[in-house]
Amino acid sequence: MGIIFNFIVLFAAGLLILKSADLFIKGAVEISLSLRLSKVFIGATIVSIVTTTPELIVSSMSSAIGETGLAAGNAIGSCICNIGLVFAIGAIMKDVPITKEDLKYKVAFLLISLIVVYLLIMDGLLSKVEAVGLLLLFVIFIFINYRLALKGRIPPDNAINVPRSNHLLRKGIISFFLGGIFTVIIARYGLVYPGLAIAEFFKVPPAVIGLSMIALGTSLPELCTTVISSRKLHSEIALGNVVGASILDLLLVLGVSALINPLTIDRQTILFNMPVAVLFSVMMLILGFRNLRFSRLKGIIMLTIYVLYIAALFSIIYR
């Protein structure tokens, strides 16, 4: 009965995070619109920071209690899940246009971040000094996007028709903080501890649970944002959110977690999981350059590879 209860809690927490993050996202978008910022900036920075909050909470908490494998697994697994599952579903639902600037400043930065992280964990440890380096890269990413946002800021005459900025800003701040509080509570009690209990019951390493089940649970806000964005024809937000959230998983989530407690990286992550993450990033870069559009076929290809990855992940354990 205990294991069934943990599965129910994990599933319910995922659904609740979906709702609380929706409120969180709504507030972030309202704040951004009140400042007349572009959709790409909204997706790549503010919405990405919002939707990455569950990963940050789960990984930092896991690191604080000594479960460094779960902390690293959740961050890296969320990055893979964002591209292979979340973005693939968005592309399957609706073609996602992409610009050369997106490829140059966002997808390429994601690939660089992956390579940097990979080089740092090759010795099996992500130290506090290395964590500071990742956080500095995160600051650089935010600065680059800020500069791009100023270049592409929507002129007042062409701004989206929204209520007066001050009113929208106040409304957005309220939604932002309410959604954030609920997300913190749900992530703390609904994902970390049930995830550890399930891993112990099935004798599965916590890192694998972090790479699969918990990574999927904490990626639900990104999935929700991508689906809603695709349905409402705001695919620029979907692209920016997925790429931005993946970069934040690597730089902010891993950086903060390793700053709390140095992360021990298992051999499977070094030899299998990180190469898969790099593969997805390279695929996104190559497929994006072709026609500057992610079509349904490209989405199906990426989703198929993600399903094969999850199957391989568990087959390695139970062979």
Structural write-up:
With 319 residues, the chain is mainly α. It has a single domain, classed as A middle domain of Talin 1, CATH 1.20.1420.30. It is built from twelve helices and four strands, in the order H-H-H-H-E-H-E-H-H-H-H-H-E-H-E-H. The protein is globular and about 50 Å long. The model is unreliable at 154-164 (pLDDT under 50).
Structural class: mainly alpha
Q: Radius of gyration over alpha carbons?
A: 19 Å
Level of helix content? over 70%
Under CATH, the topology can be stated as A middle domain of Talin 1
How many beta strands in the DSSP annotation? 4
**CATH domain class:** Mainly Alpha
CATH superfamily: NCX, central ion-binding region
In percent, how much strand structure appears in the residues? Answer: under 5%
Low-confidence stretches: 154-164
Count of DSSP H/I helices = 12
Question: What are the defining features of this structure?
Answer:
4 strands; A middle domain of Talin 1; 319 residues; mainly alpha; two-stranded antiparallel sheet
Show the helix and strand layout.
Blueprint lengths: L1 H33 L4 H13 L1 H12 L3 H26 L2 E2 L2 H22 L3 E2 L1 H24 L13 H37 L4 H13 L1 H12 L3 H26 L2 E2 L2 H23 L3 E2 L1 H23 L1
Antiparallel strand pairs: 1-4, 2-3
